Amino acid sequence: MAKTGVVPKKKRGPPPTGKGVQVGERWHPSELVAIDAWIASSSDKTLTRAHAIRRLVALGLKAKAK
User: Fold this and answer.
1) Is 1 helix (H, G, I), strand (E, B) or coil?
2) Beta-carbon neighbour count of residue 48 at 10 Å?
3) Rounded to whole angstroms, what are the CA distances from 60 to 13, 28, 53, 55?
4) Which of 7, 24, 31, 33 is such that its CA lies 20 to 30 A from the CA of 41?
């Protein structure tokens, strides 16, 4: 008689990196237009919305600290 065993299910997606906390936000169309305009005016043409938002938050926090 053949041995039968339980086969564990594979997890979906890449393994978690454990870096940072994911934050979900909803943005109004006018805010997205402003963010996209800021990206277009940037010298870095590979900038994504996520990276742009992080940079804008960092700039806002620096300005607040001064």
Assistant:
1) coil
2) 10
3) 34, 19, 10, 9
4) 24
For residues 22 and 32, the answer to whether their CB atoms sit within 8 Å is: no
State pTM to two decimals.
Answer: 0.66
Q: Which of 28, 25, 18, 19 is nearest to 50 (CA)?
A: 25
pLDDT tens-digit map of 6-50: 888 888 887 777 778 888 899 999 999 999 999 999 998 899 999
**What distance in Å separates the CA atoms of residue 13 and residue 7, rounded to the nearest whole number?**
19
The pLDDT score that the predictor gives to residue 21 is: 83
Distance of alpha carbon 42 from alpha carbon 36, whole angstroms: 10
